[in-house]
Specification:
Length: about 350
C-alpha cells in the first residue's frame, strides 16, 4: 500500500465524520423551518393537546408559553408588549376576543387571511385578517340546585344584585380574565353610570370576589355560595364531576349572553412567520373546533361541527350584540376604576 493511499484511508473516517456533522446541521436547519412559538391564555389542559395535534397535522414543532389561571391573559399579553422591539412569539392564541386588540392598536399584529377561515362567520373575524375567532365560550350563571329551586333561579346578570342573593354570589376578580371582558361589555351595553351602579350594588350585596373562574366553580359546587358567574368550560367541568349544579345562559330575551370566541393572531416581526401561518391554519380548522368542543365545551362557530351532549351551538343562543374592539378599549379605560372597586 502506497503512503498516499494510506493517507487517503486515514482521512476517510474524518471525512465521513464531517459529512455526518453537516447532515446533522442541515437536519437541524430544516427542523427550524417548522418551529413555531405560541403564547396563549387558553387553559393549558385544552391548548396543549391542540398543539400536539397541529404538530402532527401540519408538520410543526410547537413551543407554547401558557398563562396562569390567576393572571389569565394579562401575563402573556404584557410579555408580548414588552417584547415589541424583539418579538419572541409567532402567534398569540387568546382565550377571549378583546385582548388581541390591545396588540392590534399598538401595531404589533401582522394581518393574515387564513384559507381555513373562509367558512367562519364574518362577525367573528376581521375583514383584513388582523384577527380570527373560533371555538367560543359563553359567560353563564352556575347555580347550586340544592340551594336554589328551579322557580327561584336567576335568569339575568342583573339578578345578582338583588338583596335576596346577599352573600350568596361569587364572581372572579374583574381585574383579570374573562370577568374583565364581561364587565367592559356591560359598560358598553348599559353605559358607564348604569354599569358602575350595578357593580356597586354587587359590592353592597357582599359579592364574594374569587381568585379565578375555577374558584367560582368550586364555591358553587361546594355550596359555599348559591350562584356564580363563570365560563362554560368551568361549568362543564362541574357538570362532568357530578356537582349539584345547573347552567343558565343569562339574559335570553334581554341583552343576550356574552359569547367569547378564542382568537388567533400573527405577531408582527415574528421569528418564524411561515410556521406561524401554518399553526393558525391548523387552529382555525373544523377538526380543532371539534376537539375543543369535546375537551373544553367550546362552542364551534362554523356550521356542521359535531358537539357532545351539554354543549350548545352558538346558533342556539341570543348573543350579546357587542363590538369587540370597542369593548377592548373600554376594558383598558376602566382598569383604574376597577382597581379601586376591588380595593387596590
Amino acid at each position: 500500500m502506497t503512503i498516499q493511499r494510506q493517507r487517503r484511508l486515514c482521512r476517510l473516517p474524518l471525512l465521513l465524520m464531517a459529512a455526518s456533522w453537516l447532515l446533522a446541521a442541515c437536519g437541524s436547519c430544516r427542523s427550524k423551518d417548522g418551529q413555531v412559538v405560541v403564547y396563549t391564555s387558553v387553559d393549558q389542559v385544552f391548548s396543549e393537546p391542540i398543539f400536539r395535534h397541529c404538530e402532527q397535522a401540519a408538520g410543526l414543532s410547537v413551543r407554547g408559553l401558557f398563562d396562569t389561571e390567576e393572571t389569565k391573559s394579562t401575563g402573556v399579553l404584557n410579555r408580548l408588549i414588552a417584547e415589541a422591539d424583539n418579538p419572541q412569539a409567532d402567534v398569540f392564541w387568546s382565550g377571549d376576543p378583546v385582548r388581541p386588540f390591545v396588540l392590534i392598536d399598538r401595531g404589533l399584529v401582522e394581518p393574515y387571511r387564513s384559507p381555513a377561515a373562509r367558512d367562519l362567520p364574518p362577525g367573528f373575524r376581521a375583514d383584513d385578517g388582523a384577527w380570527t375567532g373560533f371555538a367560543a365560550r359563553a359567560r353563564v350563571l352556575l347555580v347550586n340546585h340544592e340551594l336554589v329551586p328551579d322557580d327561584a333561579t336567576p335568569r339575568s346578570i342583573r339578578d345578582l344584585a338583588d338583596p335576596r342573593w346577599k352573600g350568596k354570589v361569587a364572581i372572579a376578580s374583574p381585574l383579570f380574565g374573562t370577568t374583565t371582558m364581561h364587565v367592559a361589555a356591560l359598560f358598553s351595553a348599559w353605559g358607564e353610570d348604569r354599569a358602575k351602579a350595578f357593580l356597586d350594588q354587587l359590592r353592597a350585596n357582599d359579592v364574594r370576589v374569587a381568585s379565578s373562574n375555577g374558584e367560582v366553580k368550586r364555591l358553587v359546587a361546594a355550596g359555599e355560595v348559591a350562584v356564580g358567574l363563570t365560563d362554560t368550560d368551568d361549568a362543564n367541568e362541574a357538570l362532568g364531576a357530578g356537582a349539584p349544579v345547573r347552567v343558565v345562559y343569562p339574559d335570553q330575551g334581554g341583552i343576550g349572553t356574552l359569547v367569547m370566541p378564542t382568537v388567533a393572531v400573527l405577531i408582527k416581526g415574528a421569528p418564524h412567520p411561515d410556521a406561524g401561518k401554518k399553526l393558525i391554519d391548523c387552529l382555525l380548522s373544523a377538526e380543532v373546533e371539534r376537539r375543543m368542543a369535546e375537551s373544553g365545551a367550546h362552542m364551534p362557530l362554523r356550521a356542521g361541527v359535531s358537539v357532545p351532549a351539554g354543549v350548545r351551538p352558538v346558533s342556539s343562543l341570543e348573543p350579546m350584540a357587542i363590538d369587540y374592539q370597542a369593548v377592548a378599549q373600554t376594558m383598558e379605560r376602566i382598569q383604574p376604576w376597577l382597581r379601586e372597586w376591588v380595593g387596590l
